[in-house]
Amino acid sequence: MSHKVTVERNRLKFAAGHFATFADELEPIHGHNYAVFVEVEGPLTDESWVMDFSLLKRLAREVCEGLDHKFLLQMDSRVLTIQESDTHFEIQYKATLPYRLPKPDVAALPIDNTTAERLSEYIAGALRSRLALEAPPGLFRLRLGVEEMPGQAGWFETDLSDAMDTSPTDQAP
Ligand SMILES: [Zn+2]
After folding, report:
1. From ligand 1's centre to the CA of 148, what distance in Å?
2. Cα–Cα nearest to 83, from 110, 101, 71
3. Cα–ligand 1 centroid distance for 91 (angstroms)
4. Could you tell me where the DSSP H helices lie in the chain?
5. What is the C-alpha to C-alpha distance for residues 10 and 36, in angstroms, rounded to an integer?
6. How remote is the CA of residue 145 from the centroid of ligand 1, in Å?
7. Where do the structural domains in the chain lie, given as residue ranges?
8. What's domain 3-13+34-71+114-166's architecture?
9. pTM above the 0.70 mark?
10. Per residue in 2-22, pLDDT tens?
11. Distance 31 CA to ligand 1 centre (A)
């Protein structure tokens, strides 16, 4: 038996630009008002909580804020050639004209494509680290959805048991 809590949308949003790649195609640059859904599963505390909603919202919002008003760049793309200088990313796809983007406008993400599926995986990973430091122990599953537009979302699910084994004191410098 388990319980879960969910937080979603409202302030769990970010507006960002991107282009995804498909078989033989690079999307034109465009943007989405992304909405994020978070589900955390775990045991009930003595006071019948899984975890505090406000803490979960704050941690998820911190991750969203890092993506808000940025261009989401798939640094591990297998089809884009990305060159990084002190000030810019220059991005080349096949023989098309290169894009040149100022670094402060870019969220450089360790993913191979900026699909909703990979974005949900990235956000889940960032949230997982925060949960390990701040959430009550015992949480065992995180599901994270990223909606590109109403009715169209990618989801990622990850086991939290390993992350939550590490007590905050172990992480202290
Ligand atoms: Zn898109």
Report:
1. 7
2. 101
3. 17
4. 53-65, 116-134, 161-165, 168-171
5. 9
6. 15
7. 3-13+34-71+114-166
8. 2-Layer Sandwich (3.30)
9. yes
10. 899 999 988 899 999 999 999
11. 6
